[in-house]
């Protein structure tokens, strides 16, 4: 009987293994793609502009990034032996490498230099992934909560940028019209979430984007005229941008980016594991990191760049409560379709950034709220955890509120700490080790930063008490009822 119960318990499906069916998978999968579409196309647009590419090559670069994002997502969600966390994580081109890739272009490396640097550094990342997979014990709720909170807070400027129009050089950037569209999308999310219908509530982000786009079209702020122009079907051609060129300096600078991506992906894997409510051990984390690195090794062959998990989609999992990895696998299929069907990409591109901004405010805010919820589980009584949280979150927000703060620092340092997520993770890990693991040297006199309980006793006072001692009317009596005198007290 007990053996049968144990086997049944062992066979209980994990939350992420639920399959919702074709219709739900497609709908929720499309919602994930719409959430991250702007982020995944931003990187190739920036690189193409910096490289002076013609429009035709820019389009090929975008479709290559969409295609590889889909392939990487399938690898991460469905997995093969030793590769893939099998968690609902959408993969795509990492924004962490943009500045480094533009720098490689400016120093004469060209696109081929970028592709070689990405491929070689990802090979190094694959080799060191097992080391990163062993750090799960250094990611308790104290560290994980700080990272999740900063992931959300660091994305709020992205939502604000979208809400203002998405193009800082546009004449209507920050106009009331753009912000009103964002407000419509935001209110739509809230109203649909309030209706009480589970299906509508879960699709509230997607429906708000659709409704917002329709309103924008009626106001003349959504242009569908370009949808029918251009190729309808195009498979990304391998090595279209040439064979990768391997330059030691470029590889070294990109390897710093790979370290940042490993830290960020570790945080994302652990964060989504916490949101889903499933166990993430070092083996599973390692499989997720290896999937990132394998995708990044293959990506340059098709003209794409480093792959990593998208933090905004971690927020979507938290908002919708849809934990199925198969939903995100369908997102991968949709991304592949966008990569080989440019016409679909042109349809998605018609969604005004302002509409995405309104939905993004809820999404990214939810990530931060999830982090705060995780931090609420932390014990702050008579320890230094409060200062760990304060310093880690503060360090993570520096590049958000002051983007040029690290402009005068060495490039390797600036690359790591310019990412608020990696800065928070590193600071939180170091301080957690310093105060909670290597306790030698910690003062027994509590700091002003300690969140004390209602009552505290110093160690030497506690040691002076005997069994049976009682306090009556503020006076201490021993077990025989004799008054214990207080040193230094004066008789009145």
UniProtKB/TrEMBL annotation:
GO molecular function annotation: xanthine transmembrane transporter activity
Membrane topology, record value: Multi-pass membrane protein
Subcellular location: Cell membrane
InterPro entries membership: NCS2 (IPR006043), UacT-like (IPR017588), Xan_ur_permease (IPR006042)
Superkingdom of source: Bacteria
Record field: transmembrane: 26-48, 60-83, 89-107, 114-132, 138-163, 175-193, 199-220, 241-263, 326-349, 355-372, 384-406, 412-435
Keywords carried by this UniProt record: Cell membrane, Membrane, Transmembrane, Transmembrane helix, Transport
Entry's Gene Ontology cellular component terms: plasma membrane
NCBIfam families: ncs2 (TIGR00801), NCS2_1 (NF037981), pbuX (TIGR03173)
Family: Belongs to the nucleobase:cation symporter-2 (NCS2) (TC 2.A.40) family.
Protein name: Purine permease
Organism the protein comes from: Alicycliphilus denitrificans
């Amino acid at each position: 009987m007990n053996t049968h119960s144990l086997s049944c318990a062992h066979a209980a499906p994990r939350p992420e293994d639920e399959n919702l069916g074709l219709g739900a998978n497609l709908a929720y999968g499309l919602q994930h793609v719409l959430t991250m579409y702007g982020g995944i196309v931003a990187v190739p647009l920036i690189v193409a502009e910096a490289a002076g590419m013609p429009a035709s090559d820019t389009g090929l670069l975008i479709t290559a990034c969409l295609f590889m994002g889909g392939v990487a997502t399938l690898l991460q969600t469905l997995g093969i032996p030793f590769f893939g966390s099998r968690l609902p994580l959408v993969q795509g081109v990492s924004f962490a490498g943009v500045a480094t890739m533009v720098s490689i272009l400016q120093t004469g490396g060209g696109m081929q230099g970028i592709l070689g640097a990405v491929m070689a550094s990802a090979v190094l990342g694959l080799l060191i992934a097992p080391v990163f997979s062993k750090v799960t014990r250094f990611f308790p709720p104290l560290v994980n909560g700080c990272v999740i909170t900063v992931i959300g807070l660091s994305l709020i400027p992205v939502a604000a940028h979208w809400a203002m129009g998405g193009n800082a050089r546009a004449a209507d950037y920050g106009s009331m019209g753009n912000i009103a569209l964002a407000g419509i999308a935001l209110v739509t999310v809230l109203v649909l979430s309030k209706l009480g219908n589970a299906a509508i509530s879960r699709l509230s982000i997607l429906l708000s984007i659709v409704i917002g786009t329709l309103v924008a079209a009626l106001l003349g702020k959504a242009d569908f005229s370009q949808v029918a122009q251009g190729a309808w079907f195009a498979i990304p051609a391998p090595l279209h941008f040439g064979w990768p060129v391997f330059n030691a300096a470029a590889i070294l600078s990109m390897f710093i980016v790979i370290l940042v991506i490993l830290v960020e992906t570790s945080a994302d894997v652990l964060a989504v594991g916490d949101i889903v409510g499933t166990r993430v051990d070092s083996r599973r984390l390692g499989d997720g990191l290896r999937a990132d690195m394998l995708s990044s090794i293959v990506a340059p062959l098709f003209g794409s760049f480093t792959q990593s998990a998208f933090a905004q989609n971690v927020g979507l999992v938290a908002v919708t409560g849809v934990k199925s990895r198969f939903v995100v696998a369908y997102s991968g299929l949709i991304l592949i379709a966008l990569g080989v069907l440019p016409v679909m990409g042109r349809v998605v591109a018609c969604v005004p950034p302002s509409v995405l901004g309104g939905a993004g405010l809820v999404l990214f805010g939810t990530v931060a709220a999830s982090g705060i919820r995780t931090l609420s589980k932390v014990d702050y009584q008579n320890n230094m955890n409060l200062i760990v949280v304060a310093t880690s979150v503060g360090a993570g927000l520096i590049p958000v509120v002051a983007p040029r703060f690290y402009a005068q620092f060495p490039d390797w340092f600036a690359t790591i700490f310019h990412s608020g997520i990696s800065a928070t993770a590193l600071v939180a890990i170091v301080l957690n080790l310093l105060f909670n693991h290597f306790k030698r040297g910690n003062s027994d006199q509590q700091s002003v930063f300690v969140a004390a309980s209602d009552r505290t006793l110093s160690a030497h006072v506690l040691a002076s008490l005997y069994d049976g001692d009682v306090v009556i009317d503020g006076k201490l009596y021993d077990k025989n009822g004799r008054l214990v005198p207080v040193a230094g007290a004066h008789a009145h």
